[in-house]
Amino acid sequence: MKRTLLPSVLGVLMLCPSLALAQAPSSKSAALATELVKLLDTMKLDSVAGSRGANNEFVAAMYFPGSQLVVVNARTTVPDRMKYLILQKSYKDLYVELNGAVDQASKTFISDLGANGLQFKREKNLPFDTVDVTGKTTAFDGDWRKAKLSEQEYTKIYVSNDEAYSQMLQALIDTLKKPS
């Protein structure tokens, strides 16, 4: 009986792939977060900010060594002020301004606990990452049912946010790599 049970279970899983555990997508932002953290540590900085294209969009991050990156991205109606703050390397000031008086409809806020890029789900006994886009928060704890999402919806939201976060991190890395 034991010999026929295993092939039967495998057969059911092959015919019904939704019963099998889904493969978590890999984090595109992980390598970039690691690179940014190394630059911040080397330069002895706890914040950084940068421009994101011609849409008056800016990104800023606060770094808490060994534990967290908090990143805000938004459009602003005062791009000259933001550019000035970047030139002055007043990254914390830009972070505060982006977090407050900005176009709230364009705002994204990421809490990267572990400062290791967005993770698809929580590792055992570790905190999880969150992303707030225009006021709607998604917790990447792996519990899509609690969030009233299907696994496919959760995965789609994760992949989209991980891609956007990767672009934000790259803009911040580019700021730090620019010659003074």
Describe the secondary structure blueprint for this structure.
Blueprint: H1 2-15, H2 29-43, E1 47-51, E2 57-64, E3 68-75, H3 79-87, H4 91-99, E4 108-113, E5 129-133, E6 136-140, H5 151-177
Antiparallel strand pairs: 1-2, 2-3, 3-4, 4-5, 5-6
Describe this protein's structure.
With 180 residues, this protein is α+β, with helices and mostly antiparallel strands. It has one domain (23-177). Helices cover 41% and strands 21% of the residues. It has helices at residues 2-15, 29-43, 79-87, 91-99, 151-177; strands at residues 47-51, 57-64, 68-75, 108-113, 129-133, 136-140. A six-stranded antiparallel sheet has the order 1-2-3-4-5-6, with helices on both faces. The radius of gyration is 20 Å and the shape is globular. The model is unreliable at 1-21 (pLDDT under 50).
Q: What is the compact description of this entry?
A:
The chain has 180 residues and is α+β, with helices and mostly antiparallel strands. It has 5 helices and 6 strands, in the order H-H-E-E-E-H-H-E-E-E-H.
